[in-house]
Amino acid sequence: MSTLPEHVLEEIRELPAKYPQHRSAVMPALDLAQEELGYLTPEAMSEVAEALKLDPGYVEGVATFYTLFHLEPVGKHRFYVCTNLSCTLRGANEIVQHVKGAIGVHEAGVVSKDGLFSYEEVECLGACEYAPVARLDRRYEVDLTDQKVDALIAERRNPPQPPHPLPSPQAGRANTPTSSPPKKRGGKRVKKSG
Ligand code: FES
């Protein structure tokens, strides 16, 4: 039985068609696998290699080279804070310190006690004009401040509850305007012009 579910493997198999070089699909494929499992197991890397018809050693080499890929369990939400030049000049190191304090870890790659967070320092994320920048849950968070970091953490610790479902039309008195048919204006038909 596969480590990766069939729908993920299917998505990975379709990736090479999107790139001029077949091998270029390896990064997004590993990203999909990591998104699914949280980190890259040896089995997952083998399955990626098989799905892309690539040498397993090559896939493993890519996975071990880039810090964005994890070979050990990491937090569910991972801050990848850019500490390259532009971001550092605009306070990235202070942001890293703040993230560490807010999630309660002392070094990169360590998972917070609640299992929700970890962080990494990474090279330029290609959004220098918005420095300081981090990637979190596949989104870029830009112009970071301590307050923004706190808000991002709070949102993930207390995700918004889904709204209550609307009452059914059978609920009688509880009908809402959205469940009532629109009234005809003055009971007359509106004539079409022309
Ligand atoms: S230096 Fe941070 S995004 Fe480029």
Can you walk me through this structure?
With 194 residues, this protein is of the alpha+beta class. It folds into two domains: 60 residues, Arc Repressor Mutant, subunit A; 81 residues, Glutaredoxin, CATH 3.40.30. It is 37% helix and 9% strand. The protein contains seven helices and four strands, in the order ααααβααβββα. A four-stranded mixed sheet has the order 2-1-3-4, covered by helices on one side. Helix 1 packs antiparallel against helix 2 and helix 6 runs parallel beside helix 7. It starts with 5 loop residues before the first helix and ends in a 37-residue tail after the last helix. The relative contact order is 0.10. The C terminus is likely disordered. The site of FE2/S2 (inorganic) cluster has 12 residues, from helix 5.
Task: Lay out the secondary structure.
Layout lengths: L5 H9 L11 H12 L4 H11 L3 H10 L11 E6 L2 H5 L2 H12 L13 E6 L11 E3 L2 E3 L4 H12 L37
Parallel strand pairs: 1-2
Antiparallel strand pairs: 1-3, 3-4
